[in-house]
Amino acid sequence: xxxxxILEEYKKGTLSLEAxxxxxxxxxxxxxxxxxxLGFAHIDxxxxxxxxxxEVVYCAGKTVEQSVxxxxxxxxxxxxxxxxxxxxxxxxxxxxxxxxxxxxDLARMVxxxxxxxxxxxxxxxxxxxxxxxxIPVSEExxxxxxxxxxxxxxxxxVGVAGIHxxxxxxxxxxxxxxxxxxxxxxxxxxxxxxGLVSQPVIAVPTSIGYGANFHGLSALLAMLNSCAAGVxxxxxxxxxxxxxxADILNRMR
Length: 253
Description:
The chain is of the alpha/beta class. It contains eleven helices and eleven strands.
């Protein structure tokens, strides 16, 4: 039984307190046991049940063999799986066994998306990008949100250096339920968008910029110091984190 059923049975009186406690304890043990020990990694096989989406594999720093082994295990179990910061070699190794696997060069994501159901069809996530150079991080965010079942609207290259470009799309941005803003350099776009919309804004600083940008630190600090209310900030270049947070928010009314 799932947790809701256990609690309902206890509430109705058809399950004693001791039996309910035992059932909950057994459920906890079964979830704890739902890991796969690969020697070099312990894979969480119950994350979808707990959090709504399976474990996502961060491939950077792993060998191709390690990434392929982990992704193979997950792709056999789940319809939709994501590997971020993956090389094309990982994709090529997976393709013979998983014909549905795809690779996006810009986002550097390898993914399997068998289930294309849009679970939030009446609610859109807007991904707004300051410059063309920010698109790789934006695509990581957009693809993440799409694979998790969201409708995504991309609005690219509307940075504050030519603010008329942004203002011409303001009505489109306001139609979204959640807005992701991706910007490098001085990171000003997040504050401007935050002052134009009533929806939650997720700011993503990128490492795009000249020397004083400090590989994205200046954009990060600018976004953290935003004077616009309702702006949250993820880490530098963390498109995946923004896409996942937007997915969670978009499932809420």
